[in-house]
């Protein structure tokens, strides 16, 4: 089987988890290869995401690594065997791979959560808001690329606004609600859209107001996507050098704690809706 040239984030996650299991068992790649009856190069390729692994081999490896967490191994199997070619595939070769990886991550997520301080979360954005945001990039994007990115962002909303939505939580700072990314009309339409989505049973939206005393967590922007088991959750952070997918158990614990902290100090969903409604009336 030909090696992959550009493994997806999902394929890399499986590769990383298998590497962690081997390291936890204290085995070298050569020893793992001998147990499986393959070459050390094949183990290296699997752990680099360059080669796939069958369910049978995955379970054999887990057995050799003395992994007794059956629920975790069962959750790894779809990462190895699922061949879903979702809606995001129509953008392959047109948009950066990150956009496809993010859409695939959301497609398989068991829940989604966002914390944003300066912008409306992507899943809640209107088309006008997204277009204004993409149009502001430096260097400037060509109009056709802006249109592609806007369409992709609108397609992503299927995860919370489609026929089978997942539970979604968002904590948004008042700054993000007040900054006019577009004009006054676009800003008001954006707030109305947020209010509409907040009424859904599977959506919990909370606001952090400016006048909250003692709040020092404005650096805590994050996105969380739930895996089939907590070990397979993913945190996503934007940074100056690019977007990072974070999957180490220690770091995931940090982000879960940060999310709980900002959620605890925010207004409850009912008060948050009232707050956003007042802002919309001001426009």
3D architecture notes:
With 283 residues, this protein is an alpha/beta fold. It has helices at residues 9-25, 29-36, 40-47, 55-64, 70-81, 97-108, 127-135, 143-156, 158-161, 174-178, 184-198, 249-265, 269-282; strands spanning 112-116, 168-173, 203-208, 222-225, 234-239, 242-246. A six-stranded mixed beta sheet has the order 3-2-1-4-5-6, sandwiched between helices. Helix 4 packs antiparallel against helix 5 (70-81) and helix 7 packs across helix 8. It is elongated. The N and C termini lie far apart (59 Å). The mean pLDDT is 94.
Q: Could you give a quick summary of the protein structure above?
A:
The protein is an alpha/beta fold and 283 residues long. The chain has helices at residues 9-25, 29-36, 40-47, 55-64, 70-81, 97-108, 127-135, 143-156, 158-161, 174-178, 184-198, 249-265, 269-282, and strands at residues 112-116, 168-173, 203-208, 222-225, 234-239, 242-246.
The outline comes out as elongated
Mean of all residue-level pLDDT scores: 94
| Main beta-sheet strand count, sense and barrel state | 6 strands, mixed
What is the H/E string? HHHHHHEHHHEHHEEEEHH
Q: Which strand order spans the largest sheet, edge to edge or round the barrel? A: 3-2-1-4-5-6
- Uncertain segments are none
User: Portion of residues in helices?
Assistant: 40-55%
Helix and strand content put the structural class at alpha/beta
* Rg of Cα set: 21 Å
**Number of separate strands:** 6
Give me the number of helical elements. 13
Distance between the termini: 59 Å
Strand content: 5-15%
